[in-house]
Design goal:
Layout (H helix, E strand, L loop, with lengths): L3 H4 L1 H8 L13 E9 L2 E8 L1 E2 L2 E2 L3 E3 L13 E2 L4 E8 L8 E5 L8 E6 L5 E6 L5 E3 L6 H18 L1 H13 L3 H23 L7 H23 L5 H4 L1 H23 L6 H37 L10 H19 L2
Helix pairs in contact: 2-10, 3-9, 4-6, 4-9, 4-10, 5-8, 6-8, 6-10
Length: 335
């Protein structure tokens, strides 16, 4: 099999063509929250993603027993179009249908977070193919598992910056055994900080953290270039150590995404566990895709007897490093 350095640039080019590359994350999902503030009275928060500079053409429809007054006009808050209002839902929202009109004509998801009359908080993910649900009378543990497993899986695949870091490790660590140990160290590290930050045990401001994550990608990209010039860097010597240290940073990034979603009070351990499991499944899926593309590219080159491009090995680290540098500057501006 031809080396990762010769063919991984194919995947790097594909990655930079994915929407959301400029920000390091893909389009954020919509978000609807119904929070009980008094008997039958709910505070409603509705966030719509931007589409071509305008609010996405979707609307939240509350259960029939809720006030159906027209929601206030949404206001841009820097990341999404936001609206807040209150609605009275006679006898609560249990048994009522919540739906998102227009979602079937989009390619995004909406997370619905709601509070039962007993104070229990639950979440439900709606998709273009499943844009409504009936609020159950009793929270379902299985639904929590399914919702947070899928959210974790989608988050890692939508996070271009996290995938770039994993891609850089794949390029640098070519031995299978060392690669397994490295990925395991990265997984262990971000699992620790994900749990700690989500539970409020550790706190780091968002903007500096996001900039540090981008810097970690730049560091590994520079290590690839050092390796190409015959210099053995820290990552090549002790990849599991570097992966563990930077994995701690990336775990805070995962926790930030989970904090925006929120955790169901009745199933916090299950939600945390399966969000992290979803992240790991997504990460392994990405690694399998990378290795499959490498194998396919190698087979095509050998079959067609194509000439080797001398500059090909330099493309991936430059693409990864340039993207990380752009994200670093962009995130420093947000301080």
């Amino acid at each position: 099999m031809l080396t990762l350095r010769r063919h991984i640039f194919v995947l790097a080019v594909l990655l930079i063509s994915i929407p959301g590359f400029s920000y390091g994350h893909a389009l954020q999902p919509g978000y609807l929250e119904l929070r009980l503030v008094d008997t039958d009275l709910y505070s409603v928060l509705w966030k719509k993603p931007a589409s071509s500079g305008k609010p996405m053409a979707i609307s939240a429809v509350l259960p029939e027993n809720c006030d159906q007054a027209k929601p206030p006009q949404t206001v841009w808050d820097g990341s999404a179009y936001l609206a807040r209002w209150t609605a009275r839902c006679v006898d609560g929202i249990e048994g009522g249908e919540i739906r998102i009109d227009g979602l079937d004509k989009t390619s995004t998801d909406v997370l619905v977070r709601f509070v039962f009359a007993n104070g229990t908080v639950e979440s439900r993910r709606l998709t273009p193919g499943d844009s409504s649900f009936t609020v159950p009378a009793i929270p379902s543990r299985l639904e929590v598992v399914r919702t947070y497993l899928i959210l974790g899986f989608k988050h890692i695949l939508d996070g271009i910056d996290h995938l770039m870091f994993v891609l850089a490790l794949l390029i640098l660590v070519k031995d299978v055994r060392r690669l397994i140990v490295t990925v395991t160290a990265f997984t262990l590290a971000h699992s620790l900080t994900l749990v700690g930050a989500t539970l409020g045990l550790i706190r780091i401001p968002g903007p500096p953290l996001e900039a540090a994550i981008a810097l970690s990608i730049m560091f590994v990209a520079s290590e690839i270039m050092h390796s190409r010039s015959g210099k053995t860097g820290l990552t090549e010597k002790w990849p599991w150590v570097v992966a563990f240290i930077f994995g701690l940073l990336h775990g805070f990034g995962f926790a930030g995404a989970l904090a925006q979603i929120g955790l169901p009070q009745s199933s916090i351990p299950a939600a945390l566990l399966f969000f992290n499991v979803g992240v790991e499944i997504g990460q392994l899926f990405f690694i399998v895709c990378v290795l499959s593309i490498i194998a396919l590219a190698g087979a095509i080159i050998r079959r067609m007897n194509m000439p080797r491009m001398a500059c090909a090995p330099a493309v991936p680290p430059y693409v990864i490093g340039s993207a990380a540098a752009f994200w670093t500057i962009q995130r420093l501006v947000d301080f």
